[in-house]
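pls ignore typos typing on phone
fe (ii) ion + seq
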Amino acid sequence: MSAKQDNVKALKGEGQGRLVLDQQGLDAARRSLDEGAVTPSYGPWREDIVNLLNGALATELVCVMRYKRHYFTAQGLSSPKIAEEFLVHANEESAHGDLLAERIVQLGGEPDFSPATLVQRSHAEYDESTELKAMIRANLVAERIAIEAYSQMIALIGDKDSTTRRILEGILAQEQEHADELKDWLVD
Ligand SMILES: [Fe+2]
Ligand SMILES: [Fe+2]
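k done
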């Protein structure tokens, strides 16, 4: 049989196993209760996924601090409205961090809130700009880094952990809204 015919056969699912549950896995789920939500089908990537989530958590925490700094220090005619939006973003980044920490714990990992290493572990930078436009620009850069990092994480996780992927997809959508708003303010 040609390789092409083999491919067609594989695509149709012929010659493959039936769609039935693995009884061994179900039996194993009765044991290892200390694993909580993680059962045998989870696969060997738990540690990698926890590490990815901790990198994202560090990024969110640094973003909270950058937005808060900007919220409290923004000055100028157009600053009140934009400063309020910085605060909205800060609170949304904080909520993202909470989602990530909660998922890390569900996966049996430890959320890393250590302030000593936060900046090194964050993908995006803290910023102390004093001028409004420079603040907006720094936040837009950080949001674009977050968007790229979340997109890569979602691609890496694929169907290995659909719950984590959905959480990341929800966060990604909000980072894209943040970036879109910042881009508009940059031209205003
Ligand atoms: Fe965020
Ligand atoms: Fe954001």
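The two ends are 65 Å apart (CA to CA). The first helix runs from residue 3 to 12. more later
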